[in-house]
């Protein structure tokens, strides 16, 4: 029992010493002076309001004055702390574009914690959802040349070939009536197209 008390006193003394470090004197989230809690998910020193918001995200929070810390937790805090956490979670943080929330603005704190620790927006990590890639002028030019070459020949563009293959694959799994109906519809489209072309040529001749 006595050894346990001595260990608790030792751990508390170490934590109080860590609180005196410049980076740990203020809450890592809202910059409020004198943090009284530790978030053990990220080993950061935080204020009372921020501790409540962290709990909303099921992050584990411990009071420095009320809770007991194990030796393993103290070691983790020594290796972590606000300075270490900023290197990880604020790596891409731009103070010119972003600002820390006010300690009295609960909604802003909630949003901040979600962006920083849940969404990990400023860690520099690349997510699986990539934004649409903008095509270069060269790629557009190449695609246009390919489309022109197909239009100038009897071949169909590659996307039409893929469509025909997929459609034929679906037909092969259906009944014979579906295939007959499909061919009939294709023939109708071809006839209509030929009529349109012929009409256009006749009109062009009359205009001439």
UniProtKB/TrEMBL annotation:
Protein name stated in the entry: Arf-GAP domain-containing protein
Basic and acidic residues: bias regions: 124-148
Pfam families listed in its UniProt record: ArfGap (PF01412)
UniProt keyword annotations, A-Z: Metal-binding, Zinc, Zinc-finger
GO MF annotation, one: GTPase activator activity
InterPro entries per the UniProt record, alphabetical: AGD14-like (IPR044820), ARFGAP/RecO (IPR037278), ArfGAP_dom (IPR001164), ArfGAP_dom_sf (IPR038508)
UniProt region (Disordered), positions on chain: 124-163
């Amino acid at each position: 029992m006595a050894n346990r008390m001595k260990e608790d006193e030792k751990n508390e003394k170490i934590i109080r010493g860590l609180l005196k470090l410049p980076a740990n004197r203020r809450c890592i989230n809202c910059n409020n002076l004198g943090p009284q809690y530790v978030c053990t998910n990220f080993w950061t020193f935080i204020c009372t309001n921020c501790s409540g918001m962290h709990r909303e995200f099921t992050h584990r929070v411990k009071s420095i004055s009320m809770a007991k810390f194990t030796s393993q937790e103290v070691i983790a805090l020594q290796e972590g702390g606000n300075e270490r956490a900023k290197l990880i979670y604020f790596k891409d943080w731009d103070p010119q574009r972003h600002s820390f929330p006010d300690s009295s603005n609960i909604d802003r704190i909630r949003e901040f914690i979600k962006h920083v620790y849940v969404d990990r927006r400023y860690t520099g990590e690349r997510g699986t959802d990539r934004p649409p890639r903008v095509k270069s002028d060269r790629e557009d030019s190449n695609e246009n040349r390919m489309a022109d070459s197909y239009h100038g020949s009897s071949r169909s563009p590659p996307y039409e070939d893929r469509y025909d293959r997929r459609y034929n694959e679906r037909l092969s799994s259906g009944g014979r009536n579906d295939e007959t109906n499909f061919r009939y519809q294709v023939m109708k489209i071809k006839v209509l197209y030929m009529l349109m072309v012929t009409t256009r040529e006749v009109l062009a001749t009359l205009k001439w």
